[in-house]
C-alpha cells in the first residue's frame, strides 16, 4: 500500500494528539500576533505609491520640502438672499478674535470675499502635524459654533481638510464598526442554519478568526519588506473570514457525512482529510496564485493586498489541515450539540440505501435540464451570462472625488457651498517643476504666464484677485503652481483641462528652460493615471493567473480539459460580475435602491482586485465540486451519473459557503462610500452567480456534453490506475433519475 497523502498524515497525527495540536496552534497564533505588534507596522509613503506622471509630480513636490501646515476655513454665507457684507465682516472679525485664542491655531489670515460677493472666507492655519489635524480640529469647530450662535442671521460654518476629515472619520468609522459588528453574527447565523448545531457552527468562525489574527501579525512583520497601506487589514479580515469559514465548512460537512455512514471518528477525519482536505489545499494554492498576480502590478497598494491575502489563506489552509482535525476528533459527536430542533432535522446528514449522501430535492430539479439536454442548456446559460457581461465593454475607470463622498454631514454640505463661491478651492491641477536654482526666476515667470493663459480658458477657473498660487522651495529648485478648474474631479471637462495642460499649456511655457523637469499632478491626474495603470497591468496579471491556475488544475485533476474548462468558467463568472457592476453603478437607475450617487464609472482599483479575488474564491467551489465528480468517475459511474453524484453530493456545502460569503459581502454594500458599495455588490453578485448558475447549470451541462473527454490528458499527465475505493458511491439514478 502506498504512502498516505500528507493531508491524511497531518490529520491523523492531529486527531491522535488533539491537545498538542490545539496547543501548538494557539502558540502559533499568539506568537504571530504578539510578534507582529512588537515589530510595528511599516506604512507606505507617498513615494511608495507614486504612479505615472501624477506620481512624479508628487515626488517633485516632496523634494521641495515645503512647509505644508493644515489649513481650515470659516465660511460665512447668507441663509437667504444676498450676503450683507457689513454683517459678514463683523462675523469674520468675531471669528478671528475667538480663534486666535484657541490652542492649536498657528494663525488666522485675512478674510477673502468671493468674486460674486456671495461668501466670505476666513483661512485658519493649524499648528502641529498636518496628518493628525482632523483629530485636533474640534476646538476650532466649537469656536465657530459660538460665532454662529452670536450671528444667527448668517450661516457660519467650519470647512476644510481637517473638518471634512473629522466628519468622514466619524461617518466611516461608524460604518465599519457596524459592518464588523454585523458580519460575525450574520456568519454565525448562516452557519447555524447550515449545520443545525451550535458547536458545528462555531468551529469555522473560531478557525477563521484565529487565522485572521495570525495573518495580521505576520503581515505586520511583512510590512518591513513590502510597506502596508490602509486597505491591508480590512482585506485580510474579508478574505480570511471567507476562506477560513469555507475550508472548515467543506471539512466538517464531509466528516459529518462519513460519520453518518457509520464510520468511526478517526476514520471519518481521515476520509475528510483525503477528500475535502485535498480540495482545500488545491483551492488554497489557487487563491494564493491569484493573489500573487497582484505583485506584478508594480503598485505598493496591490502588493500589500497580495501579501496580506496570501498570508491569511496560507494560515487558513494550515489550520484546516491541523487544528481542525484535532478539534473534530476531540469533540467527536459533541460537534453536533446543542442541536437546534427544527434546523437539525432539515440539515442533519442523510444517506441513501447504499450510504451515499442524499441531496435536497431542489438540486435534482435544477440539474435535470443540464443532464437531459446539455447542449441546449449550455448555449442558453452561457448566452445569458455573456449578455450580462457585455456592458463591461463600456466600463469607465475613475477615482472617487470629493463629490462622491456622502453628503449626510454638515462638513460636506459646507464644502459644496465653498466650491460654489470659490471655484479654486475645489478641483486643482498641480504643476510641479524642478530646475537649477539659477533658473527659478525664469520658471516663476513662465508659470505666471501659464496661470494667466489658463484663467482665460473656460476649462479653468477664473483668476483670483490675489494672483496665482505659486510656491518656491527654500533652495529655489522646486516651484509649484495650482491651476484650478471649476468642474468636479470626475467631470469630463476636468479631464479635458488636464489633457490641455499636459499636451499644450505646460510644454509651451516651460520648454527650453535648461535642466528642467516637470509633471502635472493633482486629484484628476491621480485618477486618470491610475486608471491607465490598471488597464496596462490587467492583461499581465490576468495572464499570470490564468497560466498558473491552468497548470495547477491540470496537475491536480490530471486533465487539460478540466483545467481549460475551469479557466473558461471562472472568466465567464468574472465577466458577468463586471457587466453587472457597470449596469448598476455607471447608470442612475439603482441610485435610490442602493443609496448612492452614480459617478458614471467604476472605481479604478476595483477591476484588477475583483478579478483576482473572484478567480481565487471561485476555485473553492470548483475544486470541491469537480473533486466529487472525479470520485464518482473513479468509482465506476458513467460520466453523466458521476456529474449528477458530484453536483448533488456537494450542493449543500457549496450553497452554505456561498450564502456566508454573499451575506458578509452584502454588508459592505451598505457602507457610505461608493468604492465599498461597488466592492460589496461586485463580490456578492459574483459569488451568487458562481455558486448557482455556473456550478449548478453551466458546469454540469458542459461536463455532461463532453463525456469521457473531460478526463483527457497527454500521456505524461495521465494518472496511475486508482485503487478500488472502500465505499464507492451509489449509482447516480438513486440521486437523480436520468432517462
TrEMBL record:
Could you tell me the superkingdom of the organism this chain comes from? Bacteria
Main localization is membrane
Q: How does it sit in the membrane?
A: Multi-pass membrane protein
- What InterPro entries does the database record attribute to this sequence? MMPL_dom, Mycobact_MmpL
Q: Which residues cross the membrane?
A: 21-39, 181-199, 206-226, 232-252, 279-298, 304-329, 371-393, 538-555, 567-585, 605-624, 645-669, 681-706
Which stretches make up the Membrane transport protein MMPL domain? Answer: 72-375, 405-720
Cell membrane keyword on record: yes
Q: Which UniProt keywords apply?
A: Cell membrane, Membrane, Transmembrane, Transmembrane helix
Tagged with keyword Secreted: no
> In which compartments does the protein localize?
Cell membrane
Name listed for the protein in its UniProt record: MMPL family transporter
What is the species listed in this Swiss-Prot or TrEMBL entry? Micromonospora parva
